[in-house]
Amino acid sequence: MEEIIVFFYSFREPIFIMVLSIFLGIEVISNVPSVLHTPLMSGANAISGVIIIGGIILVGHADLSRFSLELILGILAMLFGTLNVAGGFAVTDRMLEMFKKKKK
Fold first, then answer.
1. Angstrom distance (rounded) from CA 73 to CA 60
2. Which range of residues forms the domain containing residue 91?
3. SS3 call for 1
4. 18 lies in the same domain as 47
5. Phi, psi angles (nearest 5°) of residue 14
6. Does 23 score more than 90 pLDDT?
7. What's the pTM?
8. How many domains does the chain have?
9. Do residues 49 and 26 both lie within one domain?
10. What integer pLDDT is reported at residue 84 of this predicted model?
11. H-type alpha helices, the chain
12. How far apart are CA 72 and CA 62, in angstroms?
C-alpha cells in the first residue's frame, strides 16, 4: 500500500493532467454535433493508422526468440489500432448513410 501512495505522490502532476484531460475529452466529445462526427472519425482513423505502422516497426525490431515487452506492445498496438480503424470506417459509413436521400 505504501508503494502505491509513493507512486501517486511521485507522479501527482502527470496523473492530475491525465485525469483532467480525460474529463475535458469527455466534455468535448459529448458536445460534438452529428455533422462533425464524420470528419473527426476520419482524423481518428488516420491517427490509428500511424499507431499500426508504429506497432509494425516495433514488432520488426523485437527479439522474436522470447516474449519481450516490445513484441507484446507491438502486437497490442497493431491489434487495437486495426480494431479502431475498422470500427471507425464502419461508424463513418453508417453516419454517411444517414445523409443520403432515401430511394422510393
1. 12
2. 35-104
3. coil
4. no
5. -65, -35
6. yes
7. 0.58
8. 2
9. no
10. 87
11. 2-10, 12-30, 34-61, 69-99
12. 9
